């Protein structure tokens, strides 16, 4: 199964690399910050067709179409972001990816994230470790002071902007430095690859973190909501992922803020 998912992700990546006149094909969804292109839709249609041919009994949960009615009761569920980092894609900032997760009765069993710009294919099967282009990923622990912290700004949710900034300020003051790239699936894979010690965002969607969360965990990271609770794989949720020590430090900073704001 994992090898087939990798091939489907690489096929989708080829569509991204072939894209032309991207800005001309861009539409607004909910605001000037929430964009979709014809390529998001094309990649999702292509991936959905290939995935359901591979596993016809599965349900499909993608960013660009309504959630299936049997979402939480489905035995097998594909969770897909066709282009994570659409704004990056539109602006020519080459930090976007295809993300494919496969869940079985609510647990992520397979995850594949492909960055076509750098030809980096991150993958994991539950219990079998995480890999980058076939090479196993293994993390070394470190504290926040000696870690880069990647954050997401939850830009689509202005009602929690102040919450995001409060958490960011606390982490900023203790981390070695901070980075904001704009594609959560890749951010989680960068944790798995040891490029940063911790990633956090106060609210993102399941297709943003489904595959990446398994890849990070299989590399040795701890992944939960910012409250310390398990991820909600069916609804919007905060995410905190990191090597154990940096994870615990950020959790101690963020969890009280999440509780005060009554956020998961």
Quick synopsis:
With 264 residues, the chain is α+β, with helices and mostly antiparallel strands. It is built from 7 helices and 14 strands.
Describe the structure.
By secondary structure, the chain is of the alpha+beta class. It has helices at 2-17, 38-54, 86-91, 161-174, 184-192, 206-219, 244-260; strands spanning 26-28, 35-37, 59-62, 76-84, 97-104, 107-115, 120-125, 130-132, 135-137, 148-152, 177-179, 198-204, 222-224, 237-242. The strands form three sheets. A seven-stranded mixed sheet has the order 3-4-5-6-7-8-9, with helices on both faces. A hairpin with a 2-residue loop joins strand 8 (130-132) and strand 9 (135-137). Helix 1 (2-17) runs antiparallel to helix 2, helix 4 (161-174) runs antiparallel to helix 7 (244-260) and helix 5 runs parallel beside helix 6. The mean pLDDT is 96.
Computed Rg? 17 Å
In DSSP terms (H or I, runs of 4 or more residues), the helix count works out at 7
The helicity comes to: 25-40%
Strand order of the largest sheet: 3-4-5-6-7-8-9
Ends apart, CA distance between termini: 33 Å
> What is the approximate shape?
globular
Outline the low-pLDDT stretches. Answer: none
Strand content: 25-35%
Largest sheet: 7 strands, mixed
**Main structural class:** alpha+beta
Number of strands: 14
SSE string, helices as H and strands as E: HEEHEEHEEEEEEHEHEHEEH
List the helices and strands and how they pair.
Elements: H1 2-17, E1 26-28, E2 35-37, H2 38-54, E3 59-62, E4 76-84, H3 86-91, E5 97-104, E6 107-115, E7 120-125, E8 130-132, E9 135-137, E10 148-152, H4 161-174, E11 177-179, H5 184-192, E12 198-204, H6 206-219, E13 222-224, E14 237-242, H7 244-260
Parallel strand pairs: 3-4, 10-11, 10-12
Antiparallel strand pairs: 1-2, 4-5, 5-6, 6-7, 7-8, 8-9, 12-14, 13-14
